[in-house]
Amino acid sequence: MPEEILKNFEQKRAEALKVLESKEAGLSLEKQKEILKDVVSEKIQTIQPSRVNQQVAQKIQELQEQPKERQIQILTEMAFEKGVVYAVEIAKNLDNPYLLDEFHDVLVDQLYNKLVEEGKLEKI
Predict the structure, then answer these.
(1) pLDDT tens across 76-113, in order?
(2) Residue 48's pLDDT is what?
(3) What is the rounded CA–CA span in Å between residue 79 and residue 44?
(4) Burial class of residue 114 (count of CB atoms within 10 Å of its CB; 0-12, 13-18, 19+)
(5) CA–CA separation, 40 vs 61, rounded Å?
(6) Is the pTM of the predicted complex or chain greater than 0.70?
(7) What Cα–Cα distance (Å) separates residue 8 from each residue in 36, 67, 69, 112, 114?
(8) Distance of alpha carbon 2 from alpha carbon 76, whole angstroms
(9) Lower CB count within 10 Å: N or C terminus of the chain?
C-alpha cells in the first residue's frame, strides 16, 4: 500500500470529520471515495514522466499493444506491485489522457477496497 497516499488520505479524512457538526454521523462512502480520489489526483499531478529507460520503453510498447481495459488492469497491478509513481510514469508515457483518467478512477476504487480489507477504513 503506498504509504504516502494513505497518510494524505487519513489527514484529509480527519479534516473532513472536523467539519462535520456531528462526529457520530461519520463520512459517507461517497465522501471517503471523493477524498481518496483527491489524494490520488494530487499525487498523479506531481509525477512527471521521467526519462524512459529500455525496460520502461519495453513495458510501454507492450501496453500499447493491449486493449484499453487490459492496459488499465496492468497499470493497476503495477501500482500495487511497483508503486503508484512507477505506474503513473508508465501511464503518462503512453500519452493518452483518457487512459490516465480511467486508470485514476480504477486505482481509487482498488485503493479504497484495499483500505477496507486492511481494516484502515470501515465500509459504510
Answers:
(1) 999 989 888 888 888 888 888 999 999 999 998 898 88
(2) 65
(3) 12
(4) middle
(5) 25
(6) no
(7) 9, 33, 28, 13, 16
(8) 12
(9) C
Cell numbers at 2, concatenated:
503506498
Buried b or exposed e, range 29-50, using 16+ CB within 10 angstroms: eeebeebbbebbeebbeeeeee
Q: Which of 117, 88, 109, 119 is nearest to 32 (CA)?
A: 109
Q: Return the amino acid letter for 90.
A: I
Determine the length of the chain.
Answer: 124
C-alpha–C-alpha distance, residues 34 and 91, integer Å: 22
